[in-house]
Design brief:
Bound molecules: zinc ion
Shape: elongated
Structural class: mainly alpha
Radius of gyration: 23 Å
Distance between the termini: 68 Å
Strand order of the largest sheet: 4-3-5
Largest sheet: 3 strands, antiparallel
């Protein structure tokens, strides 16, 4: 087998691949390699058995989650953890649920009232059925329509579908504000003084 342009035995190749996979995951979870080496040694001394690096990365990631206060960042962190588990053919479901739930908390925190389900080009037929389906944020938090339990899209592990559907705001006011923002951007470019008008429209919209 060939690794880094060198001929190696199969055993060596597996070792190199494992090392590469670990390094990739350490980068993904912002764990410094020297810190990780220390933790590996500590655990080995404590338990007297060779620690599983992936298990250790998992417990560090869980620990990190406990310290993240921003719901959006937490949503992304749990999504990464879900993928991490799926790559190892382990149960990822609870992490994916949390990833979607914290996104809802983030939208709610931003004052969003209504959300819709966004599918992607590789969504499975089961997920496509709920494309653009709308919920109030509270309804979505209660019912948790995504991740879709009957998703058949395979990410890595063929044992269970990995639903990639996400929530996005469906509030008309947000869409209108995006349009207004665009208008203000254009007006600034054309040097027309419209911001006061914009502020008036915005105030009016919030009142209604
Ligand atoms: Zn699906
Ligand atoms: Zn889905």
């Amino acid at each position: 087998m060939i690794r880094n342009g060198q001929l190696v035995t199969e055993k060596e190749a597996i070792k190199i691949d494992d090392k590469w996979r670990i390094a990739e995951k350490l980068k993904e979870f912002n764990i410094l390699e020297p810190d990780f080496e220390i933790l590996l040694k500590e655990q080995k001394n404590k338990t007297n058995v060779e620690p599983d690096p992936m298990e250790l990365i998992h417990s560090i990631a869980l620990n990190q989650a406990g310290r993240i206060k921003d719901p959006e960042a937490l949503s992304y962190h749990y999504y990464k953890m879900a993928i991490f588990m799926n790559e190892q053919s382990k149960d990822f479901w609870d992490y994916l649920v949390k990833a979607r739930l914290y996104k809802l908390y983030e939208l709610k925190r931003n004052g969003i009232k209504k959300v819709k389900i966004i599918t992607s080009h590789y969504s499975c037929p089961n997920c496509m059925e709920s494309k653009n389906k709308e919920y109030t944020v509270d309804e979505a938090i209660e019912k948790m329509p995504i991740p879709n339990k009957s998703c058949t899209h395979i990410a890595v592990d063929p044992a269970k579908g990995f639903c990639e559907c996400v929530y996005d705001s469906s509030d008309e006011i947000v869409v209108d504000l995006a349009k207004l923002y665009e208008l203000s951007r254009i007006s600034k470019k054309e040097n027309i003084k419209k911001p006061s008008l914009l502020a008036r429209i915005y105030k009016w919209m919030l009142k209604n």
